[in-house]
């Protein structure tokens, strides 16, 4: 994997977990983490579980024991690394947006097409189409449950830049990121709308704007965090992108990508309206999908919330028992963290066995109360 910031952490987690929950035909091994700063990349490799590190991706691409290159660097290096990797016969997974310009993206797509002829494949990481509720939305549209699609509303709303003193991270610099909200999060909205409706955008009409044009330079940048320097620099990308789009199907859609939607943290939303029904997805509520069935008798219609947590839903069967939501696992990670920290500090982790005993006494008291005809029963009396 080349790169080790926020997306590096996310991809590491994906590589580690996928073969444990899904029966894969091959098991990915997390072999080499690549970054220019030897010390930082070695710390990241220890943290995220990569066996080795390297500071030059070219050396890694040249190795015979490497089959896949995962690219999680800023967009300015995607094209060079991806093309070299494909030419070296490595399969490639590359973060979105694919590149910083159409020219680069076209070179990458050409390289990928040639590689595919040799059985070497490339994929771009539009991850959100694999959130089960989003995938299920696509399934409902494909099954005709929405009928003829009339209209699409897609937005990706964040607010992490509303502070004018937030540092000038790489995502705010055109030469590194290609564009701002448009490419960083608008790309997700475009991919999701096209994926769910099964139709590509044919033409668009839009406006982009930059609200805060100058910010403190970023120091100690890592992932989405950085500290502000006393020097300032120019923001060279958009903060907001608004556009309407005409799909090849003829359907009209509205799109909004912004990092200035105060209070909205990571709201990738998609609403699709059709002759037989409608659906509404919101990443901030990712375990559910709103569905409106316009074929139901008048008076019984209304948006209903489908809990996308059942084995019938895409991807879900491999995870937890029905109803146990994505994110269920995080409670166990937090439990392990708190347990290890407390024990290492020589302190009592909570809840303690004494807390467990108290719950046991409550249970015993309920049984005892029931046996005695529902009499009020003291919890601490339970032996
Ligand atoms: C930051 O805006 C960011 O991390 C994007 O870069 C990701 O693509 C998106 O998934 C979440 O927000």
Question: What secondary-structure arrangement, pairings included, does this model have?
Answer:
Blueprint: H1 6-21, E1 32-34, H2 38-48, E2 52-54, H3 57-61, E3 68-71, H4 78-87, E4 91-95, H5 102-117, E5 122-125, H6 132-142, E6 149-157, H7 174-177, H8 181-197, E7 201-209, E8 214-222, E9 225-234, E10 240-247, E11 252-258, E12 267-274, E13 277-282, E14 288-293, E15 304-307, H9 328-344, H10 353-371
Parallel strand pairs: 1-2, 3-4, 4-5, 6-11
Antiparallel strand pairs: 6-12, 7-10, 8-9, 10-11, 12-13, 13-14, 14-15
Helix pairs in contact: 4-5, 6-8
The structure holds alpha-L-sorbopyranose (SOE).
CATH class category label of the largest domain: Alpha Beta
Strand order of the largest sheet: 7-10-11-6-12-13-14-15
Average of the residue pLDDT scores: 97
Overall CATH architecture of the largest domain: 2-Layer Sandwich
Low-pLDDT stretches are none
Number of strands: 15
The helical percent reads 25-40%
What is Rg?
A: 25 Å
What name is given to the CATH topology of the largest domain?
Dihydrodipicolinate Reductase, domain 2
Number of helices: 10
Count of distinct structural domains: 2
Percent of residues in β-strands: 15-25%
Question: How would you describe this structure to a colleague?
Answer:
With 383 residues, the protein is an alpha/beta fold. The chain folds into two domains: 6-128, NAD(P)-binding Rossmann-like Domain (Rossmann fold), CATH 3.40.50; 132-285 and 287-326, Dihydrodipicolinate Reductase, domain 2 (2-Layer Sandwich). 33% of the residues lie in helices and 25% in strands. Strands 7-10-11-6-12-13-14-15 form an eight-stranded mixed beta sheet, with helices on one face. The chain has a three-stranded parallel beta sheet with strand order 3-4-5. Strands 1-2 form a two-stranded parallel ribbon. Residues 137-279 form the GFO/IDH/MocA-like oxidoreductase domain.
């Amino acid at each position: 994997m080349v790169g080790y910031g926020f997306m590096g952490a996310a991809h590491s987690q994906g590589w580690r977990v996928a073969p444990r929950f899904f029966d894969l035909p091959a098991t990915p091994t997390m072999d080499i983490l690549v970054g220019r700063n030897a010390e930082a990349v070695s710390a990241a490799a220890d943290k995220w579980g990569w066996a080795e590190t390297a500071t030059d991706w070219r050396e890694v691409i040249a190795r015979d024991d490497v089959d896949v290159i995962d690219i999680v660097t800023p967009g300015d290096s995607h094209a060079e690394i991806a093309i070299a990797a494909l030419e070296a016969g490595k399969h490639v997974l590359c973060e979105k947006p694919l590149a910083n310009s159409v020219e680069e993206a076209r070179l990458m797509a050409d390289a990928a097409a040639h590689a595919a002829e040799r059985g070497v494949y490339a994929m771009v990481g539009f991850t959100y189409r694999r959130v089960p509720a989003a995938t299920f939305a696509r399934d409902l549209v494909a099954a005709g449950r929405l009928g003829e699609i009339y209209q699409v509303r897609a937005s990706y709303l964040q607010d992490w830049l509303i502070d004018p003193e937030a540092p000038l991270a790489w995502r705010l610099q055109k030469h590194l990121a290609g564009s701002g909200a448009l490419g960083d999060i608008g790309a997700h909205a475009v991919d999701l709308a096209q994926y769910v409706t099964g139709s590509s955008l044919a033409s668009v009409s839009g406006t982009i704007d930059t609200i805060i044009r100058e910010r403190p330079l970023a120091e100690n940048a890592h992932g989405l965090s950085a500290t502000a320097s006393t020097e300032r620099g120019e923001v060279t990308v958009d903060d907001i992108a608004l556009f309407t789009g005409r799909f090849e199907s003829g359907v009209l859609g509205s799109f909004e990508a912004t990092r200035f939607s105060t209070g909205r943290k990571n709201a990738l939303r998609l609403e699709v309206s059709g002759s037989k029904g409608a659906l509404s997805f919101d990443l901030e509520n990712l375990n559910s999908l709103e569905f409106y069935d316009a074929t139901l008798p008048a008076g019984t219609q209304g948006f209903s919330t489908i809990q996308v947590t059942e084995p019938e839903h895409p991807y879900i069967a491999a995870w937890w028992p029905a109803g146990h939501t994505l994110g269920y696992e995080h409670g166990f990670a937090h439990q392990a963290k708190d347990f290890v920290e407390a024990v290492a500090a020589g302190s009592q982790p909570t809840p303690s066995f004494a807390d467990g005993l108290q719950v046991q006494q409550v249970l015993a008291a309920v049984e005892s109360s029931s046996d005695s005809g529902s009499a009020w029963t003291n919890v601490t009396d339970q032996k």
